[in-house]
DLW-39 family protein
Amino acid sequence: MKKIIVLALVALGAFAIYRKIQADRAELDLWTEATAAGEN
């Protein structure tokens, strides 16, 4: 039973890290687009 709980916690942690990376990447894309538009 403990193994299932630990596995679930690891999966939740991995999912949270994945979502954080996706959010950071999206923010970087927006920043890049905004600064590139100003150069033209």
Observations:
- DSSP finds one helix and no strands in the chain.
- The mean pLDDT is 92.
